[in-house]
Amino acid sequence: MTDAVLRIATRDSPLALWQANHVAALLRDAHPGLTVELVEVKTTGDRNRVDPLPAMARALENGAPNAGANGVGLFTKEVQRAVLDGRADVAVHSLKDLPTAPAPGLTLAAVPQRASRWDALVLPAGSGAGSLDDLPEGATIGTGSPRRRAQLLRLRPDLTFAEARGNVETRLAKLDSGEFHALILAEAGLDRLGLSGRVSKRLDAEILPAVGQGALGVECRENDPAVARLAPLDHPVSRAEADAERACLHRLGAGCHAPVGVRGRGENPAAIELTAALLSLDGKTCLQANATAPDPVAAGVAVAESLLERGGAALL
User: Residue 307's closest CA among 292, 287, 291, 293?
Assistant: First the structure.
């Protein structure tokens, strides 16, 4: 990094590029005259769009550096490597993809203001509004997420599921061609791509979201001048919610593909309420816990320990 240039490493998907450009705009606003460049990176998760993500995560767990808890890092480790080897100064991630175990040499320097954290039900084009109750018996839902599947099965045990890999536009095309009755997608991603009109129903009462969903994570090298550059981008409440949620997942020893849903919320970073659910893959067992603490990390750890004390380890 020079005084006037900062390089951002990012995945090359349309959504990832939107996110990187959003962070670039925030940096330019915070530091007038700063030139921001993007360094596009292809990740393991981007190169393989066939295999289910949980299976890929288990494979990555066996010996991959910086894989994080339970093999996560499918969409982050190559982006992190670009920063560590000096090709870039900053990495921008969807925070839900970022391992809770820190990568040696990197620090999570900023969590900008969070967008919608909720999942959305998406029906085929032209369907308009709808709900889970409107789906036919045995409907096929496009999602590979164990968290989403378990929570949906708890509501509708008759549902079936199919992998829905690829970028958002690819998955929507598969839906509209009849491969699925519905998709479950992150509302934030649809909003960022200008596709808010495809949301048939926000599932804010039905499904607890993933850790960090709707938030971005901005990493840089420890003790790098970029740390100070990124400080104005850190949103205190969004950061506190993320810290609580990530602390919970880390204490559970689970990865981003575990059947764990969380919701951190609060108007004050020193009073974040965290709610979490840990489910069996079939949705038949669901443990829930919540806590509020002055320290977001303490709240996350307390919720995780409550789940573990009640038998949560068996569900992981």
Answer: 287
